[in-house]
Amino acid sequence: MAPGKIHIVFGSQGAGKTTYARQVAKETCSTRFSIDEWMVEIFGPDLPKPMSLPWVMERVRRCERRIWSTASEIAQHGGNVVLDLGFMKVSDRSKFLELAEAKGLPAQLHFVTAPHDQRRSRVMSRNASKGATFSFEVTPTMFDFMEAQFEPPTQAELSRSISHSTAHERDASVRTTT
Q1: Which secondary structure element, helix H or strand E, spans residue 109, and what is its range?
Q2: How many domains does the chain have?
Q3: What is the CATH number of the domain that holds 41?
Q4: Is residue 176 one of the residues assigned to a domain?
Q5: For residue 24, what are the domain limits?
Q6: pLDDT tens for residues 154-175?
């Protein structure tokens, strides 16, 4: 049996990653894993006040390990998988590409992008509407912090990525791949 493909979706906050990941999952008959959904469901009720970034990141890493274990098993049995885990850092993206390669699983990067002002506006609108892609409120301060954490794709990443711009979309629910 041929292995399934691992789709790795990454981009800045508000670019439309989760909406895009849902569409890729539907189009490729994939199982989708989105870190925000896991975090809210498993750890949301226990979130300390005030929020502690080290506390959150430890739990993100736990979820990522469990998600990878399940996702790689699905792919080894021929199923496709979409990973919507943020992937803010080059090292995070590289790690998952290496994990896939070590198991002989094909992987495809998907870079989702939109202009800063549009992304910020989407995040603030998502906070207000609490629509389909809302998991938790992202304050302007949180947005600015996370914006500084994102590492743009390297040339090597771009050369193996499907790039998807949501710049001309009124919201991230409409897909146009470039």
Answers
A1: strand 107-113
A2: 1
A3: 3.40.50.300
A4: no
A5: 6-165
A6: 999 999 999 998 877 655 433 3
